[in-house]
Amino acid sequence: MSDIRKFAVEATGQLHLRDANDELMHADGKPMVVNLYGPGSKQYAKAQAAQQNRMIDKLKRKGKTEQSAESKAAEAAEFLSDCTASFENVDYDGLTGGELAKVIYSDVTIGFIADQVAKHLGDWSNFTKPSTTNL
Would you kindly state where each structural domain of the chain is located, as residue ranges? Predict the structure, then answer.
């Protein structure tokens, strides 16, 4: 028998960002990268729980489930920020950490970044461990 945990995913993964033309992004020759907490991490589970709690809070408020585009975008930015460990070679007004993540994911002029991060997070295979078998 084999221990099923050998198929466990990594807690984090890295995404080399692409621009709106699907070209890899670089700054001074270095890759512009976001390090993400994947769906198998405690941080991702916490971010998902927070997102669900915000939805429940909305439902409690007189059963209203409609939300504005701005509110929806802010919630998405919050979730993606909570799933972001760090950025590499990325600058936005000198911001760092969670502030940097929120402003990037909230900026509609670079909305393609939030889209690709959300897509990356949604695919468990992006967080698999490197193969230890020889091909």
Answer: 13-61+68-127
Helical segments of the chain, H only:
42-60, 69-82, 97-106, 111-121
Residue 11: both structure tokens together = 């807690």
**Residue 135 above 50 pLDDT?**
no
Chain segment 32-89, per-residue pLDDT in tens: 999 999 999 999 999 999 988 888 877 777 666 666 778 788 889 999 999 999 999 9
Instruction: Output the six-digit token pair for 126.
Output: 């992006």
Task: Decide: helix, strand or coil at residue 37.
Answer: strand
